[in-house]
## 1
Amino acid sequence: MISLGLIGYPLIGSLSPRLHAAALLELGLPGEYQLYPIPPLPEGEPTLRALLGRLRAGELYGLNVTVPHKQAVLPHLDELTPLAQHIGAVNTIYARRGRLVGDNTDAPGFLSDLRRVMESAPPLTPWPPLSTEERGPGGEGRTALVLGAGGAGRAAAFVLALAGWQVRIAARRLVQADSLAADLRAALDARVAGRVTVTTLDQAGLAGQAAHLLVNATPVGMIPRPDACPWPEDLPLPPEAFVYDLIYKPSETGLLRRARQAGLPAVNGLGMLVEQAALALETWIGRPVPRPALWQAAIG
Ligand code: NAP
């Protein structure tokens, strides 16, 4: 029996159990995927420790991690994959020889879906990263504006910078954006490190910002406040932007509605959800996971 699950809080309306159940069924593997709501630390610490103990003991097969634990879980793990280490956030955990390993499938999941929806998106960057010459044109010369500097913002900013985009990180707390930018610059090739800049997520910080890609990596617009929008009300969206909202519930957030009204191409995070789930399951079971089964479960 393959026992999988998701750690997060409050985990209302998560599609992950449905996606993983559909994939396991398609693969003919007996298994389950449970939700483990764990309050933010320190309150949730004893529950988190107990659950990770079950994973270490082999009682559980693998765990996903979502808001608000993607960074909080790091001190509880024994190892990180190079990608998770550089991003500084984990969404997938497994046990190897009694040691807990943290990985990140949000990053490749995001870029893989971006390639699907945005015709001119850069190629998926392999790990370890290629040299600038090998990487090809990718996002060279184009600017991505990432709203939010938490776990998902880290993943998106990291892969975009690697793929050659100029990345501007906007956060309501500039100190958080600065910390992410410093981590990225330290992880990246010196030639691309200068492409990462920061600003404040407010009218003053966003006014006049040109962007070819606008990514919402904040939870603003999620149920139960689907009309909320992280972009300031009185500021027009960047006129050339492709808008990618990582939120998938509701399917049209306040930001996506504004993008539609402004005539901008825009998508929600359902494709990223499917990709990151498929990549996590492939990490756990070591077999290719059929995307159509997951898409059917996500839409159906
Ligand atoms: P997180 O680690 O908690 O980070 C959230 C970020 O948003 C932080 O920078 C936070 O700033 C900021 N933020 C929160 N409330 C805000 C507000 N009212 N105004 C401005 N900024 C605000 O969360 P996460 O894991 O990165 O997830 C972010 C979003 O991405 C969530 O909606 C999540 O569902 C979505 N996501 C989707 C997928 C997918 O597969 N589609 C995968 C991962 C994440 P503070 O630190 O100041 O609060």
## 2
Amino acid sequence: MRVKLLAIILLAFIFGAGLAVLLNPGGVRQWLVGQTSGTALIGGPFSLTDHTGKRVTDKDFRGRLMLVYFGFTYCPDVCPAGLQTIAAALELLGPKARGLTPVFVTVDPERDTPAVLADYLANFNSSIRGLTGSTAEVADMLRAYRVYARKVEDKGSLGAYTFDHSSLIYLMDAEGRYLTHFRYSEPPEALASGLAAHL
Ligand code: NI
């Protein structure tokens, strides 16, 4: 009898779970992967200035995939490594890379003016667009993309302050919606094939 009762409870549970997936697949997936995900919530409108000094919004990037990376030009190692990975992946993609716009958004608008970004990004790949803006505009963008960035005092040679920041590379679709993300330390070949899957 015990076994039968257990079997009934188990079946009821399985049926309930199945029903939950049918009725709300996204919610169940979110529940399963936990709080750390929330990836569908990444992205949104922004209004910034590009490295040529032109005002741009998220709408200017529609129609092509957008590869978004956050950092700052004073960053000693992580940001340059991420940008090198992106540049190498773009190189590997060749003409296919025209289907996406690579974007580098500064977390340090105070120092990263359009001109500073233009000089810096020229070292990596000429197709990477730099984005900066007022402190409030950049803060809005960071919030929309769930990017962590914290200014910390730094007595080193690079300046009076530096930033602790998250370093994921986001891939957004042609409508500006989140598709997937990559680590900055990804081998360029892996990034290239990950991007090619969406191009
Ligand atoms: Ni960095």
